[in-house]
Write a structure and sequence with these properties.
Chain B: InterPro entries: ET-Flavoprotein_bsu_CS, ETF_a/b_N, ETF_b, ETF_beta_N, Rossmann-like_a/b/a_fold. The complex is a heterodimer of chains A (418) and B (270). With 418 residues, chain A is of the alpha+beta class. Chain A is built from 13 helices and ten strands. Helix content of chain A is 53%, strand content 15%. With 270 residues, chain B is an alpha/beta fold. The chains are: A alpha+beta (418), B alpha/beta (270).
């Protein structure tokens, strides 16, 4: 019976398509949704890697919370890490869009492992955008040579959304700087080889944020750098999240990113490149939720038929599909704007805000489709719910995203004469 | 034609030239469906990939290059325009260059191993490989014929169902271990030869992303059956394609006596 329904839908679909186009083309009206051959190859490789290397071990890492080093090493050996690093350093210099393709695939397998594999993107972003050639060679070159991790350390116990409120201090001492303070919730905090750290370099509280902070590159093995214990989180448990204490950490002047006082701009600039990939991670969860729920709904029977034939269940799947398709397109648009060299803040925030909401709803609905089984760890969907939540929090909470979006749209509206 | 290789020590020579066949087939994970008119299976919009035994063949060629047994490895595919993607995968795994013998869509469904082996034989005349490695069979038709037919057309020795390929003891031939019904058979073949790969020959590598990017720049030559002078006239006609019969439920029995009794009932034992 289900086959009959699907067959009718297929016939109707193809008939209406035949009426609209004489021959299938890809470029209509100047816009294309087609992936290039290279992008397709990247997507296929990432998909295959996910199926072979991530999916089989995801549940085990979720339980143990161990850092997935074997998976990371394998991804590194295949060139699937550090995708955006420049060719002169030995990287593939792929765009934000390509990073989103890979992120979605890995996230389908496990968003915790995905965060671990692609977490270098956030830490590396400030160096890519503002680092000198020497700094890039030293710190980004390392990441290509070996499977090393880096981290982006801005958030503190007392300041997350309120970046301007961070209290870690940077005091000049001769040619060096001395860093003191505490960071919190730093992804890759315990496994990083080096950190991008934002600290307040101007103690005067009246100095505007745009001038009061400085970004530093700090080696893990610098005396005084103390990662705390690995935090026991609700989801993305394979990812390593820690507090880090900086106690009289001496940093040479050559490790200042950009110029002193430029830190806030650098820290915020990184997000324009990373929000779309974070959105892609959320899309991966939404895709997995829909996939698991669909498979289950075709097998599980109630009232004598597979539950997929009950409209209430089928409609849950349809809503997941609506969310998935639109979230992905929003992410693609944000990534495309970044790759075109344009400031994509508005699109990046839209994509991240929307995709994270879609991921959470889809994961919750997937558990619903599974019913009692969904609530249980023997089935894969409760993990999706736990993993999805962080997407509404990190890289700018959903509330901050809405702040950004409303500011952008109001600024645009006010610049037009009514 | 006759192609004689210098029987000098293989390790000292610049290595064998290997030709590897790759076929684009429906992906092994796809649930294949028979077309409503029973003329074949649904291929449109269905995921395709390289025949798994051909992936093993490609992997073996690349490994032989890495071991310096082979100097150049060339991939060849006989198929529709999309076979180019299959060849790019081979190039990404480490093959040096590729040849695509493009078959027009109308003739594709009627293409048989006899045609493919004739096309490959013609290419061998010009390419002069020392070793041809093919997958033992394609997972769509399961013919298991092309390698054997090719060897016969070329009058070359063949070593099919290979689970290991190495130089022979005197390094003048290839020692191939074959998986046969009775176990393993080891034979020495002189080159040039045709070898077909079996499942346990190796485990194919992932193509790394940098190699996938580099593969775009590797040469891919196109040829047509007309250029090669091979007639693609079909020699067989497919009458119908059907699903295998649905497996009937069995019955559980409580004891050996019950089992024997039931077998007697069905006339299966006396």
């Amino acid at each position: 019976m289900l086959n009959g329904i699907l067959k009718t839908v297929q016939l109707v679909g193809s008939a209406s398509r035949a009426r609209l186009c004489s021959a299938p083309t890809e470029l209509v009206g100047g816009i294309s949704f087609k992936l290039s051959e290279e992008q397709q190859s990247l997507q296929e490789l990432a998909r295959k890697f996910t199926a072979d290397e991530i999916v089989p071990v995801a549940a085990q890492y979720d339980v143990s919370g161990e850092y997935p080093w074997p998976v990371i090493r394998k991804a590194h050996s295949l060139g699937l890490m550090n995708l955006s690093l420049p060719k002169w350093l030995g990287g593939l210099e792929l765009g934000v869009f390509d990073g989103c393709l890979a992120t979605e695939e890995f996230s389908f397998g496990c968003s915790g492992i995905q965060t671990a594999i692609l977490g270098n993107g956030l830490g590396a972003s400030p160096l890519l955008m503002f680092g000198t050639k020497e700094q890039q060679k030293e710190y980004l070159g390392r990441l290509i040579e070996e499977p090393l991790m880096c981290a982006y350390a801005v958030t503190e116990p007392g300041a997350g959304s309120d970046v301007a409120g961070i209290k870690t201090t940077a005091v000049r001492k001769g040619d060096d700087w001395v860093i003191n303070g505490q960071k919190m919730w730093i992804t890759n905090g315990g496994v990083a080889n080096w950190y991008f750290v934002l600290a307040r370099s101007d103690p005067d509280p009246k100095t505007p944020a745009g001038k009061a902070f400085t970004g530093f590159i700090i080696n893990r093995d610098t005396p005084g750098v103390n990662p705390g214990r690995k935090e026991d989180n609700l989801g993305q448990r394979a990812s390593d999240t820690r507090g880090i204490t900086f106690e009289d950490v001496v940093v040479p002047a050559k490790n200042v990113l950009g110029t002193p006082g430029m830190g806030f701009k650098i820290a915020m600039g990184a997000f324009d490149k990373t929000r779309a990939p974070v959105g892609a991670g959320a899309v991966g969860i939404a895709k997995r939720a829909l996939h698991e729920a669909t498979q289950y709904a075709m097998q599980r029977k109630t009232m004598g038929v597979p539950i997929a034939q009950h409209q209430a269940v089928a409609f849950l799947l349809a809503d997941m599909a609506i969310g998935l398709e639109t979230a992905r397109l929003a992410v693609w648009r944000a990534a495309y704007e970044a790759d075109c060299g344009r400031r994509n803040t508005y699109y990046a925030s839209v994509a991240k805000a929307f995709a994270s909401d879609v991921a959470n709803k889809s994961a919750s609905d997937a558990v619903q489709v599974f019913g009692g089984n969904g609530y249980n760890k023997e089935y894969p969907v409760e993990k999706l719910m736990r993993d999805a939540k962080i997407f509404q929090i990190y890289e700018g909470t959903s509330q901050i995203q809405r702040l950004i979006i409303s500011r952008e749209l109001l600024a645009a509206a006010m610049s037009v004469k009514s | 034609y006759i192609h004689i290789i210098n029987k000098a020590d293989m390790a000292a020579s610049k290595g064998l030239k290997i030709l590897v066949g790759c076929k684009r087939v429906i992906d092994y994970a796809v649930k294949v469906r028979v077309k409503p008119d029973r003329s074949g299976v649904v291929t449109e919009g269905v995921k395709h990939s390289m025949n798994p035994f051909d992936e093993i063949a490609v992997e073996e060629a690349v490994r032989m290059k890495e071991k310096k047994l082979a100097g150049e490895a060339v991939a060849i595919s006989v198929g529709p325009p999309q076979s180019q993607e299959t060849l790019r995968t081979a190039l990404a795994m480490g093959i040096d260059r590729a040849i695509h013998v493009e078959i027009p869509l109308a003739q594709l469904e009627k293409l048989q191993p006899i045609h493919v082996s004739k096309l490959l034989a013609k290419v061998c005349e010009s390419e002069k490989p020392d070793l041809v490695i093919l997958g033992k069979q394609a997972i769509d038709d399961d013919c298991n014929q092309t390698g054997q037919m090719l060897a016969a057309l070329l009058d070359w020795p063949q070593a099919t169902f290979a689970s290991k390929i190495e130089p022979s003891q005197d390094s003048k031939q290839l020692r191939v271990t074959r998986e046969v019904d009775g176990g393993l058979e080891t034979i020495d073949v002189s080159v040039p030869a045709v070898v077909t790969s079996d499942l346990r020959l190796n485990e194919p590598r992932y193509a790394t992303l940098p190699n996938i990017m580099k593969a775009k720049k590797k040469p891919l030559a196109k040829m047509s059956p007309d250029q090669l002078g091979v007639d693609l006239q079909p020699r067989q006609e497919v009458i119908s394609v059907e699903d295998p019969p649905v497996r009937k439920a069995g019955a559980k029995v409580e004891s050996v006596e019950d089992l024997v009794g039931k077998l007697r009932e069905k006339g299966l034992v006396k």
